[in-house]
Design a protein that fits this description.
By secondary structure, the chain is of the alpha+beta class. The chain is built from 4 helices and 9 strands; from the N terminus they run ααββαβββββββα. It is globular and about 50 Å long. 26% of the residues are buried.
């Protein structure tokens, strides 16, 4: 009986110490993009891993070396961002040629950046960064963040002038190809 009480106590305490994001799926790209500050067509050119001490690593191997030599460092303190090159502003105002978009830190309901590839072009439905207690290092109000509770990114397929992703439908999470010009009419 005593073991049962200890197990229940551990489960309750563990849940109260858990700070991971918890959100329901907010919808497909067309639905989610309505609420975004900016929608851009952009090319991913680099990933940046920001540490609280100001260091920035641009590849996973360098970051892993740092983590191995600093065992007391907590990876939750790393700010993951992707540097993008602006091709087109679809909605909102953005004129910089390059800027950073921050993704998942595990605590703030943001999109994990592992789904993006350097050199590929995406349609991104993004919001201005807002400071919270979970804001990654070096992120400020000039940067953007990409949400993880809805569909906020589509892959652009240039040779077909199409996009690929979870684009429409209310209850279906089906990956489809969709005409880019048709998408623009729906989101602008």
């Amino acid at each position: 009986m005593k073991k049962k009480h200890i197990a229940i106590l551990i489960i309750v305490l563990n849940q109260s110490l858990s700070f991971a994001c918890s959100c329901d799926w907010g919808g497909n790209f067309i639905k989610a993009s309505i609420y975004s500050d900016v929608i851009v067509k952009a090319k991913v050119i680099q990933f940046n891993f920001h540490l609280p001490n100001g260091k920035v690593y641009t590849n996973q191997e360098e970051l892993n070396k740092y983590l191995k030599t600093n065992p007391d460092f907590k990876p939750v303190n790393i700010g993951a961002a992707m540097l993008v090159e602006l091709i087109e502003t679809i909605k909102g105002i953005e004129q910089r040629k390059t800027f950073e978009i921050y993704g998942m830190s595990g605590l703030d309901c943001r999109q994990s950046l592992h789904i993006f590839e350097i050199g590929k072009v995406y349609i991104l439905s993004i919001d201005r960064s807002k400071k919270t207690k979970y804001t990654p290092p070096n992120e400020d109000e000039e940067d953007y963040m990409i949400g993880g509770c809805s569909e906020h990114s589509l892959e652009f397929i240039e040779e077909k002038n199409k996009v690929r992703g979870y684009i429409k439908r209310h209850y279906s999470r089906r990956l489809i190809n969709y005409n880019y010009k048709k998408l623009l009419k729906k989101i602008t």
